[in-house]
Amino acid sequence: MRAAAEIVKVHPETLARLSQPKQFLEVSLPVRMDDGSLRVFTGYRCAYDDSRGPAKGGIRFHQDVSIPEVKALAFWMACKCAVVGIPFGGGKGGVVVDPKKLSRGELERLSRAYMRAIARNVGPATDVPAPDVNTNALIMAWMMDEYNTITGSIEPGVITGKPVAVGGSLGRDDATARGGFYILRDLEKTLGWDPKAKPITVAIHGFGNAGQHFARLVHDVGYRVVAIGDSRGAIASESGIDIPAAIEHKNRTGALPSGRAITNAELLELDVDLLVPAAIEDVITTRNASRIRSKTILELANGPVSADADAMLQEKNILVIPDILANAGGVTVSYFEWTQNRSGFAWTLEEVHARRQMCIRDRVHAFDVVREAWVDRLQPVPDLQERHVYPGDAADDGHVAAELEAHLEFLGGARHLVDAVGRGAILGAVGEDVGQRRVVVGVVAARDLDWHAEARVVRDVGDLLAAPVDDTAVVQGCAVLRGGHETHGELPGWNGAEDTTRAAATH
User: Closest Cα to residue 51, out of 384, 359, 507?
Assistant: First the structure.
């Protein structure tokens, strides 16, 4: 963390604040087993940081769950949410258990016991859990039901990754994989890859939800998946694996199909174009980093490469697409689900896919900038926001008003936002910045919106106008929100230095 902070010039006080989680909870979970006995399990929940919004992160059921693991995963979630620009902090939870050894009834009772234990610490405005390793939509539904029973309310936004029938979002099932897939397609030009012109070989470590969906997506566009592995072992085929058949067999039998058997250790060391760790953390460490032959690694799992191993891979000129970018598709759609729950809307699958692409479209550029700075360590990191040219007539008052009403209902101040835009009080303005055209967005809002809400409005309006909004634009937009002016710059009531600091710290 400190090495990365040095590269991107993170303020020492910010680094000090991020060195420890805001809150960590350890709970005991007594569960009545099918045979009548009582077992007590240990559970954890960490809210690492909530500066940007409610803590957000999954719940995993695994026998190796530990305090350091949960804290590390929660920190990564905070970074991930910031990378894709969604208004969440970082959180994570887990239970020390092998769920494969539990019956369905025991699993439900454990899930409900966990929610009872953490109910005071979670909620749609404080900490929003989601599925992770060995948990799924059904378990999330049990937990949501338990929370609603405890509170006597109906709060679908307390948890994401739920079944669609009880408030889940379309597109959540393959969200993590699809996000990584979008990143890969955006990087193809940089990598010089064209899977339709030349075979691009892929090895996927982990063939659960994320691994299966990623394999299907890359297979469909022409990539050659030559190896897949799960917790029991792996198979390989130089000519390529029939991915649809492998997925069907795995989901029907619980095992990989027959084929040339290899170990997972051998899979990680295959000479392939793309290696995709899609299972658990620390599968590439100092013990095997020297034997990794793939020149590109896409971290679909959380933390699959240890910090020391990452340095070794860098020395070998291996490109690592980090997890906080590569697997951010899952939390992005979780944000969409939470937004839909809070506003009472339900988006189509097409809308979900389009909005997800919008969230991550500029993140590859940011990744390239940081990577280049890391390589030479001599160049300062420039503004990570890629500049674009947009037409001045990107949207009219009526269009923006309609979109705002649909997208910002959850803010509670949407009605007067719509009215203000409809009156033309403030419109998007095209200006010049360092010789490049950019869009600075402002909109009039109620004076009772806090600074976080103001910033969220500015960013949301920027999304609606297809205009990326950086921290400077946020500061300017918030000044407009408070002052109601159509101009930008030195505005009455705006302390530029103070607000710039707040913008950088918060966003």
Answer: 507
Choosing from 22, 80, 92, 250, the catalytic residue is 92
pLDDT digits (tens, 9 = 90+) for 101-128: 999 999 999 999 999 999 999 999 999 9
Q: Residue holding tokens 């809210």?
A: 47
Report angle CA 100, 106, 107 to the nearest 5 degrees. 55
Alpha-carbon span 187 to 446, nearest angstrom: 41
Residue 284, classed as helix, strand or coil, is: strand
pLDDT in tens, 407-463: 444 333 433 433 433 333 333 322 333 222 222 333 333 333 344 554 555 555 555
pLDDT tens string 34-65: 999 999 999 999 999 998 899 999 999 999 99
Q: Is residue 418 part of a domain?
A: yes
Domain of residue 502 covers 397-506
> Is 80 a residue of the active site?
no
Are 131 and 58 in contact, with CB atoms under 8 Å apart?
Answer: yes
- The answer to whether residues 253 and 366 belong to one domain is yes
Q: Are residues 356 and 416 in the same domain?
A: no
Query: What is the pTM (predicted TM-score) of this model?
Result: 0.66
Query: How far is the C-alpha of 436 from the C-alpha of 244, rounded, in Å?
Result: 46
Contacts of 354 (CB under 8 A, 6+ apart): none
Decide: 136 and 168 in contact? Cβ < 8 Å. Answer: no
